[in-house]
Amino acid sequence: MILILKSYFSGKVLKTIMKYLFQIFTFVLIFSTTTTVAQTYNSYYNDIVNTVSQNNILNDLTTFESYGIKTIGTSALNNTQAWIKDVTNL
Predict the structure, then answer these.
(1) Domain map (residue ranges) of the chain
(2) Which of 21, 41, 69, 77 is 20 to 30 A from 35 via CA?
(3) Surface-to-core class of residue 84, CB atoms within 10 Å of its CB (0-12 exposed, 13-18 middle, 19+ buried)
(4) 36 pLDDT exceeds 60?
């Protein structure tokens, strides 16, 4: 390929073409190696996603709201914190 390019273009133009070809080749090489291992399936996250529903979200928001106004040092804040820990199993 270089021999074909040398026969059609002068030295300065050839260097510019080779520079761009090298950049394109480098980009394609990096892109192709990173995208092949970008994501792997994890069943743990699939289980979490499967438990999400409109009713679950609405129930959790209603429960969160029922604890009242949550300001620093109030029992509403402490109760809400305990509920979140209980729900998330932390």
Answers:
(1) 2-35, 52-88
(2) 21
(3) middle
(4) no
